[in-house]
Design a protein that fits this description.
Undecaprenyl pyrophosphate synthetase, six-stranded parallel beta sheet, 16% strand
Length: 225
């Protein structure tokens, strides 16, 4: 039976879900946060050590400015309201991505959350914000060159945002699209990938439980027979 250390999520379908309810894309994003909370709670209960959520990609800047502004305010307000709960549940928050382009108040909040939760050990939550895997790999190689490190797989991994973490065992993408969308291209090399038709706000603990059961009984060869 396979050991499960790390699940990554591409949370696709929030906007489409909100529009299907006749309440707009932002309503979908609000309900998407509720799904994240459910999945985190389930994962703590089931002792899953690490979760990674694709929150905002480097390509998402192409979306309407009003939607981007709402997404950032949603992240900001969530942590301002929920930080006590995060601390109480001993959740460690890691932000992966390039924060330079983000609004100053959001960067301040994210940095504060990272510092406050750095010693928590119940579960690690990676939030990929302004994240693009190609940029991550390019930056890792740039760091290696500046440090005069040899170009090896180990050294690349040491310079990724996820340098101290095991690679994801599972990737779940909701929303019915079968693509990686520039998310953790290096890290997902041997992940078991599950593309789900449900939109993210409809995804639930029962769905994840089925995926985990399937994963644990999957033969993983890693290139061997």
């Amino acid at each position: 039976m396979n050991k499960l250390n790390h699940i990554a999520f591409i949370m696709d379908g929030n906007g489409r879900w909100g529009k299907s309810k006749g309440k707009g894309r932002n309503f979908g994003h609000i309900n998407g946060v509720k799904t994240v909370k459910k999945i985190v709670k389930f994962s703590i209960k089931n002792k899953i050590p690490i979760l990674s959520f694709f929150v905002f990609s480097t390509e998402n800047w192409k979306r309407p400015k009003s939607e981007i502004k709402f997404l950032f305010s949603l992240i900001n307000s969530y942590f301002n309201k929920e930080i006590k709960s995060v601390i109480r549940n001993k959740i460690k928050i890691n932000i992966i991505g390039n924060l330079k382009k983000l609004p100053r108040d959001l960067v301040k909040t994210l940095n504060k959350v990272g510092i406050i939760t750095k010693n928590n050990n119940n579960i690690i939550i990676n939030l990929a914000i302004n994240y693009g895997s190609k940029d991550e790999i390019k930056n890792a190689i740039s760091k290696m060159l500046s440090k005069k490190q040899k170009l090896t797989e180990k050294n690349i991994e040491k310079n990724l945002y996820t340098k101290d973490l095991p690679m994801p065992d599972i990737l779940v993408r909701t929303g019915g699209k079968n693509r990686l969308s520039n998310f953790m291209l290096w890290q997902l090399a041997y992940a078991e990938i599950y593309f789900i038709k449900k939109l993210w706000p409809d995804f639930n603990e029962v769905d994840l439980k089925k995926i985990i059961k399937n994963f644990k009984n999957t033969k993983r060869n890693f290139g061997k027979i």
